Amino acid sequence: MYTVLFEKIAKRAAVIRNEGDFTDDETGLLRCGKCSEPKQQVVDVYFAHKKIVAFRACRCEREADAREKTALAEHDRRQRQKQLDMGIKSEAFKGYTFDSDDKRNIETTKLCCQFVRHFAEFEALSTGLLFCGDVGGGKSFFAGCIANALIKRNIPVLFTSLRDLVDNRQAAKYCGEELIDLKMYRLFVLDDVGSERLNKADLDTAFCIVDDIYLLQRPLIVTTNLTISQIDNPSSQEIARLYSRIRERAPKAVFISNKKQNRLTEAKAKLAIIDKILGGE
Ligand SMILES: [Zn+2]
Prior knowledge:
The protein is α/β, with parallel strands linked by helices. The chain folds into two domains: 3-60, no CATH class; 87-262, 3-Layer(aba) Sandwich (Rossmann fold), CATH 3.40.50.300. Helix content is 52%, strand content 15%. The chain has eleven helices and nine strands. It has a five-stranded parallel beta sheet with strand order 6-7-8-5-9, with helices on both faces. Strand 1 (22-23) and strand 2 (30-31) form a beta hairpin. Helix 4 runs parallel beside helix 6 (139-152), helix 7 packs across helix 8 (200-216) and helix 8 packs parallel to helix 10. The longest helix has 28 residues, at 59-86. The chain is elongated and about 120 Å long. Zinc ion binds at residues 32, 34-35, 37, 58-60.
């Protein structure tokens, strides 16, 4: 039953002769012409009561193998880096980091840090966050902070918009553009959901994309200027099924208020007091 296997081993051992290789007079085995190490070895297959000549890697072979392994590892590393870099295309979004946070909304900063810290748990639950609230409150900024912090930890995140994903899928279908491979990413950030203008065909495509993310069981972070009531009571059936899918992967709504606006309001209130003082008797 081992005959075929032995023949294969013998065949491999026999076809490795290169120019300059020579036979060792003493052992009868082939030696490398470059490093002089044996390229064959006798293996005692005791259970078959047989000795066979098998392949042996000489130093040149071992070094070539090591070089190939290093090159493959470097290729993998570059691919991973490319994948990480591709996750956030916009330079502006790359600048959304906890380091650049002005801490004006410390509760949200803390919440986002907690999300990053416990990402594995959110990943296991396949759920993310829905950032809603005041315009200018920094919803995209906080989503970007999470994305950049995870990318820094070598976790691939795709920070994008429904519009871009729809455009990519349609361009891939009709113009041969490279389709974004959703499988590569462990978190998706859909920025400014609800602001995009999607016709019926776009909505169908958007649903397919969100459904793919849903089936991949990846967590989702969504930022939107819509209110929860607008998300839960959309204007059409198509939008309803799209938002319902989104809500399944981003069930936790986080209201982000515009603290800057509050500060301005405070400033305005002070101005009114100052005006009163200056204008008074
Ligand atoms: Zn050699």
